[in-house]
Structure formats: C-alpha cells, structure tokens
Inverse folding.
C-alpha cells in the first residue's frame, strides 16, 4: 500500500468531500443535514492530525491536503452563511480572498519548482479557529431558530478580530512564499551552471 494512502489522509479526503455537501445542504434549507456534515468534517479535522502523529503516518501530501481541506470547508461555510445573510460578506471576502491568493501562490511555487511551505502559521491557526467559532455560533443559533439580530453583534465583533488575524497570517504566508521563491530561484541558478 502506498505511504500516502493511510487513515489520516482518508479522513482528510472525507473532509474535502463533506465541505460541498455542507454548502449544498445549507443552501437548500436542510440545517440538520448541514450541521451533521459540518460536525463530521470538524471531527475529521481533529482526528487526522492526531492519528498522523500517533501512527507515524505524516506525509507531505497529507499536510498539503489538510490545509486545502480546512480552507475549502471554511470557504463553503462562509459562502453559505453569507448567502443566507448570517455572516457579513466582508468577512467572507477577506478569508476566501486570502485563501485564493495563497492557492495562486502555491501554484506559482509548484510551477517554478520552488519549495512549498505547507506548515500553517500560529496566527493562521488562530484565525481559522476564530472563523470556525463564528461558523459554529451561527449554525447553533440557526439550529435553534435564534433571530440573526441576536448573533449579529457577536459575529461582527469576532469577524473584525478574525479579519485582523487573517490579514496578519496573509503577511506571514506572503513572506514565506517569497522566501521559497527566492530559494527556488537560487537553486535553479546554481543548478544551471
């Protein structure tokens, strides 16, 4: 069996599949199904990293897929909630915009054969944890039929802090990507001599 085909990577792949399922179920009005999909996806997020460490099954592909799965789940959740008016579009725009820029930077680094930094930054982890908290607050409030006005001030306050962290993490990732691009260029220049 290939090294990359392991339990942690299967759990990560499950999260990638569940992200659009959550988006679809929420947009068609099935809040119960959406909440279940999100809860299972969130559970796989905790388990895949833990099992990768415990079973010594950490792979570069797994780290890349884990980051991609997290970003896809958050993007689907924020888009679904913004469409329904549960979170502000500016929050969705900042988070999804940063992730699209990071994806473009990753493609550029891969195309130029530069090393791809896949380790999340501490600020990035805090940002995603806060965004996930916002999603959970909104989903739980929606599940209990709480009016949007009741959670709006909490969502806005948490959203401002999350945006600041997302922007801070974008600066950190940008710096890491630039360093990788320089290292790739140096390796290419010295390899061509």
């Amino acid at each position: 069996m290939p090294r990359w085909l392991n339990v942690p990577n299967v759990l990560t792949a499950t999260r990638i599949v569940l992200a659009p399922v959550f988006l679809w179920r929420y947009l068609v009005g099935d809040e119960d199904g959406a909440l279940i999909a999100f809860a299972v996806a969130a559970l796989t997020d905790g388990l895949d990293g833990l099992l990768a460490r415990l079973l010594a099954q950490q792979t570069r592909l797994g780290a890349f897929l884990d980051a991609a799965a997290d970003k896809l789940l958050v993007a689907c959740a924020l888009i679904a909630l913004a469409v329904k008016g549960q979170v502000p579009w500016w929050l969705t725009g900042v988070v999804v915009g940063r992730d699209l820029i990071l994806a473009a930077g990753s493609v550029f680094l891969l195309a130029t054969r530069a090393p791809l930094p896949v380790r999340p930054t501490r600020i990035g982890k805090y940002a995603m944890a806060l965004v996930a908290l916002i999603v959970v607050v909104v989903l739980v409030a929606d599940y209990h039929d709480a009016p949007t006005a009741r959670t709006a001030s909490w969502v806005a306050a948490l959203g401002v802090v999350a945006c600041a962290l997302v922007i801070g993490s974008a600066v950190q990732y940008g710096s890491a990507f630039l360093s990788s691009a320089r290292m790739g260029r140096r390796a290419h220049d010295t390899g061509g001599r």
Notes: The two ends are 40 Å apart (CA to CA). Helices lie at 7-27, 31-54, 60-83, 89-111, 122-143, 148-191.
